[in-house]
Amino acid sequence: MTDLKRPEPVPNDDSRPFWEAAREGVLRAPKCSACGRVSFPPKPVCPSCRHSALAWVDLSGHGTLKGWSRIHIAALPDRDPPITVVEVTLAEDARATLVALDDTGAVAGLAPDAPLVIYFTEDANGWSYPVVRPADPEGV
């Protein structure tokens, strides 16, 4: 757990399974039962085929770097700038993108498509949030 305190999420019916899994350190997202698309961020219907039969599945926590941005103004409470926000293409579906923080600063400067690992850290507010780091060369 970090001493930092991010704004608390307000889970709804579409995002609650994600936040419940995050507390367990698991990356979970809805997957369309009709076409197989993984939908992230979570939506009430599949963004590809508009089917409403979505099943929540556990994901590997692996992805690739889509992009990153360094923010040089105070954007989060209890956190001095700069912070690095990272877009991660999920390994299970290249159309699904997760946005997370790079707490270590190791992602900034990596080339697009660099392999990343998504994990969760708990903040002082008791919520677990996704963060990323470069994958080990062995893929672990």
Overview of the structural elements:
This protein is mainly beta. Helices cover 6% and strands 34% of the residues. The chain has one helix and seven strands. It has one helix at residues 16-23, and strands spanning 28-32, 54-58, 62-71, 83-90, 97-101, 115-122, 128-134. Strands 5-4-3-6-7 form a five-stranded antiparallel sheet.
Task: Kindly summarize this structure in a few lines.
The chain has 140 residues and is mainly beta.
Task: Indicate the percent of residues in helices.
Answer: under 10%
Q: How far from one another are the termini?
A: 22 Å
Major β-sheet, in short?
5 strands, antiparallel
Total strands: the figure is: 7
Side by side, the strands of the main sheet go 5-4-3-6-7
Radius of gyration: 15 Å
Q: Please report the number of helical segments.
A: 1
Q: Give the DSSP E fraction (strand runs of 2 or more residues).
A: 25-35%
In quaternary terms, these chains amount to single chain
List the helices and strands in order.
HEEEEEEE
Low-confidence parts:
none
User: What's the rounded overall pLDDT mean?
Assistant: 90
Structural class by secondary-structure content? mainly beta
Shape: globular
What topology does this entry show?
Layout: H1 16-23, E1 28-32, E2 54-58, E3 62-71, E4 83-90, E5 97-101, E6 115-122, E7 128-134
Antiparallel strand pairs: 1-2, 3-4, 3-6, 4-5, 6-7
